[in-house]
Design a protein that fits this description.
Chain lengths: 264, 293
């Protein structure tokens, strides 16, 4: 598949999203709502659940599969309250020493008047800041689109994994082509150059591992794909949980500290 | 204690003509870059360059022209106290983006600086601090590996030496040509700011025109105290993108410093000419240890 074919697969409306994975992988998921300040945002979901008997905090960026559902979820492009809800739940995880697992599927943070009035930039910044020192082991899995700061705001984690046909990028290939070449129709070319596929991201160290998915895309065999994620979590979550938290925080800092290419 | 004693303020070294040379390069502001006249971004009047004072405030309406990083530092740091960090750090090309190296080279020649931020330590009103100033004349002040690394190191130096940090932001956001590596700088810088905060140290961010995108959504909004210059454009998403998304025109005051103050995201708007005094005062009140009485 070309990079742009992967983009199209990652965006398929039939592609499984956060809630489906959470319900398959975890037991007894209970969803919680609201940021305790303004309102609930349905593009971000979160709550508590059991993973093989371990209490966990799970959160995700959920896109719908139909127009109606997508309008309700705002196409997975959250307002600031969504990030603040996720942060509230992560703080709760820290308090009760639960691991945090986040599922990322978003085109990016919502652009609009209300979003700016309520500090979209501040909400994202706060999540990056707080997640980097959160005293809970954390895993993020990019399951579709990982769009820009809106994706990163839930992905400053100890481990970042990606499903084979997902993408993670600074902005959409259309936006990239429009900004740099003033021509959004060159999105396929942009997708190639931007290094947004799982393989490119693994090479750059942006993700730690690629999780296999069904041939042609996760939507072709949800259970296989969800099973692969579960298997990966089984392998790693117990190790992460065992680690001394100070060591873990040091490693997390260094994980993100290392990004950048420069000479001096 | 003498809270309001006059500190020696710096004279701004560069001439207005030198500042003007490229200050409008790569910005959307109306300008006449090679002439003797420039158009005020606020009132739109043509102003004779020699009449523009060193702080680049319009003599007619009091509006602000954008200020170069070097000039900002000269104004804020006490005279002859600024020591620059990592001035030779240069961008590489993580995506092998065509002609990126060439673009950087041209920008360096044009602006006389190596990247979109200058970082270092100095004294401000007699109190030692780490100071960074971004330069919107350098690829729109965008944050790539070098901007991220310099600011991260500035925070790390301040954490190690228990110093406050003052950062003047001026940026369109991410450096597109560095793609996902540019995005990762947001996490890197924010993590460094978090460690600085965990040590109980002060960070003041000063948002200047323009501050948007990934800089707003990382260290711009993370100050313990967030100041801004009047009328500065500050936001997350670009105005044009929002207009296209919601299919309506936005009011003029949308995403200005005043708009952010009203909505609770800026502590205080400070006129350019008073910034040194206000920052000095904050540092004086805050830093019992560093005072030079």
């Amino acid at each position: 598949m070309s990079a742009f074919d992967i983009v199209k697969t990652a965006r398929k409306t039939s592609r499984p999203s956060a809630l489906e994975y959470i319900n398959f992988i975890f037991d007894d998921f209970i969803e919680f709502h609201g940021d305790r300040s303004f309102r609930d945002v349905k593009g971000v979901v979160g709550g508590m659940a059991l993973f093989e008997g371990i209490p966990c905090t799970v959160s995700g960026r959920h896109k719908g599969h139909t127009i109606e559902e997508n309008i309700e979820r705002n196409f997975g492009a959250p307002h600031p309250e969504g990030y603040r809800k996720a942060l509230r739940l992560m703080r709760q995880a820290e308090k009760f020493k639960r691991p945090v697992i986040t599922f990322i599927n978003t085109a990016g943070a919502f652009c609009g008047i209300g979003a700016e009035e309520r500090g979209q930039g501040e909400a994202i910044a706060r999540n990056l800041f707080e997640m980097s020192t959160l005293k809970s082991p954390s895993v993020s899995i990019i399951i579709g689109e990982g769009g820009s700061g809106g994706a990163l705001a839930l992905a400053v984690s100890d481990k970042v994994w990606i499903l084979k046909n997902s993408i993670y990028s600074i902005l959409s290939p259309e936006g990239f082509a429009s900004i740099l070449w003033k021509d959004s129709s060159k999105s396929a070319e942009a997708a190639e150059i931007m290094k947004i596929t799982a393989e490119d991201l693994l090479e750059l160290g942006v993700v730690d591992d690629i999780i296999d998915e069904a041939d042609g895309g996760a939507h072709n065999d949800f259970e296989y794909t969800a099973g692969m994620i579960k298997e990966k979590l089984l392998k790693e979550i117990f190790e992460l949980k065992k680690e001394n938290i100070e060591e873990l925080l040091k490693k997390r800092y260094n994980r993100f500290r290392g990004f950048g290419e420069f000479s001096e | 204690m003498n809270l309001f004693k006059k500190k020696k303020y710096v004279s701004v070294a560069e001439t207005v003509e030198a500042q003007d040379k490229n200050v409008f390069a790569n910005t959307n502001q109306p300008s006449v870059p090679d002439g003797m006249w420039v158009k005020c971004p606020n009132c739109g009047k043509m102003i004779y360059k020699k009449e523009i004072p060193k702080l680049r405030i319009c003599p007619d309406c009091g509006g602000y022209f954008r200020l170069k990083a070097r000039c900002r530092i000269d104004f804020i740091a006490d005279e002859e106290t600024f020591v620059e960090f990592n001035s030779d750090m240069l961008s590489k090309n993580p995506l092998n983006y065509p002609d990126y190296e060439e673009k950087i080279k041209k920008m360096r020649e044009k602006t006389g600086i190596n990247e979109a931020v200058i970082a270092g330590k100095c004294k401000i009103g007699g109190i030692e601090a780490v100071l960074c100033a971004m330069d919107s004349g350098f690829i729109m002040g965008s944050m790539g590996s070098v901007v991220g690394e310099k600011i991260t190191r500035a925070f790390e130096y301040a954490t190690e030496n228990e110093l406050p940090v003052v950062i003047f932001t001026a940026s369109g956001g991410a450096r597109m040509q560095e793609g996902i590596i540019s995005l990762m700088q947001m996490a890197k810088v924010s993590a460094a700011a978090a460690r600085h905060a965990e040590k109980g140290l002060l960070y003041i961010s000063v948002l200047t025109d323009p501050t948007t995108g990934g800089v707003t959504a990382s260290f711009g909004m993370l100050g313990d105290i967030i100041l801004s210059e009047p009328k500065a454009l500050i936001g997350f998403a670009g105005r044009r993108v929002i207009e296209q998304t919601i299919k309506q025109k936005l009011p003029d005051e949308f995403q200005t410093a005043e708009f952010l103050l009203e909505h609770g995201f800026v502590d205080k708007i400070v006129e350019r000419e008073n910034l040194k005094e206000v920052i000095s005062k904050i540092l004086y009140i805050h830093c019992e240890k560093g005072r030079e009485d």
